[in-house]
Amino acid sequence: MGIAATTQAEPSLEPLSILGVGVLPFELYDEAVAYVERSITSGRKSFGVAINPEKVYQAAQDGELMAALAQADMCICDGVGVALAARLLHGRWLKRCTGCDLFFRLIARAAEKGWRVFLLGASPESNEGACDVLSRQYPGLRIAGRRDGYFTDSGEIVRQVNASGADLLFVAMGSPRQELWIAEHRQELDARFCMGVGGTFDVVSGKARRAPAVFRRTGTEFLFRLLSSPTRWRRQAVLPLFLLKVLQEGLVLRRTVQ
Q1: Three-class DSSP category at 117
Q2: Cβ–Cβ < 8 Å for 202, 122
């Protein structure tokens, strides 16, 4: 959520700027779910993004990604590094609200409320498997449509999503592709809420293993991913660079206050 988008946030939820990306300080997942529900019932479109240090750091180097994040209405604190940055920059510790956990809570609420869901992205196997698992686990869930991430004609996908009458669109294309795609097509899409969910369909289908609970509780999923796939070290190497930029920004803020 860009700082310019604060007018769409709830009055009591002013975003905290993390290197130019505004993150909403939800205390509970229920608050985030309620935010989405208000968007759907009011007919207002909203765009959610799970924010982690990699995404913030990349946006600081990539104007197109920063512009896409500025379109988002609901940026959530997905990574412990973002929570730490909020503490260093604003003296406030953000509660984590991960994209994967929020996805499951929104699916549960969709089944309860009768909202129509469209799953876009991942491989054909993961996409189909995720739909099958969710349909079994959440009786009453209305999966209005699905499509894997292997496509070339985005216009066709937009038409398919709109024809389905979906209220919620979850896009699993990996970051930043999913955020850029949603931002590019947001005005054409009729779905009330759109959100990128990364590898969530792989997790739901069983193709990928989610980090054990101890890593999730401590916000150290990145360590589990690094241990499981050491080749990811290049992606994790951005963490110290992110913290360095946060410290530099903190110094600038303190000098401004003085």
Answers
A1: strand
A2: yes
